[in-house]
Amino acid sequence: MKVSLFITCLGDMFYVNAGKATVELLERYGCEVDFPETQTCCGQPAYNSGYHKDTIAAAKNMIRTFEHSEYVVSPSGSCAYMFHEYEHLLKEEPEWQEKARTLSEKTYELTQFLVNVLGVEDTGAEFHGKATYHTSCHMTRLLGEKEAPFTLLKNVRGLELVDLPRRQDCCGFGGTFSIKMPNISEQMVDEKISHVEETEAEVLIGADAGCLMNIGGRIDRIGKPIRVMHIAEILNSRGDA
Hints:
Structural class: alpha/beta
Number of domains: 2
Strand content: 15-25%
């Protein structure tokens, strides 16, 4: 099975270990992974800010980039979902709209691909510690993937997974929202962190780099002893703590 890795901007620049873990997980289950070098930003920041016409160039570039891929897998539910928006974005161009539909149908977030395509529920991971999981808005509400991360995490040996109170609440990132509305965003992320503290977890796990960067950055600034990790790192761990 051939899989193209869609690393995303944040994965490429800030969460390199999550990208490495994603590749290692896919290869462990027989996937031949390639990395199309023409991939860039998927256009989500511009699109979410209302600049839809300006997003079209990015969308067409990504469609061309992955046009010949068998599957496209990303360690980000948010960015994976953006490919589903291309079909609406390109509705005035039927040929491109059809290509966009084809791309969305073969694109998956990492845990979604492992569970629903490869049929993997146990990656053989071992991670000793108490953790809680943050459910990102785009992945759960728009991509619609709510179960796959928990299916995989419950089988990680040594991991004590505690439910996060009000886990459905946004962390306050929201792409450009956190820049345009910093005061509101700060209050939202502080509330998220307070719920994480309620669990007494040592580690906060997430599947979207944007959320992890937002929550992790605030945790660092206020000096909380909570480690932030991408789910790919946990699923690829072998006894790390």
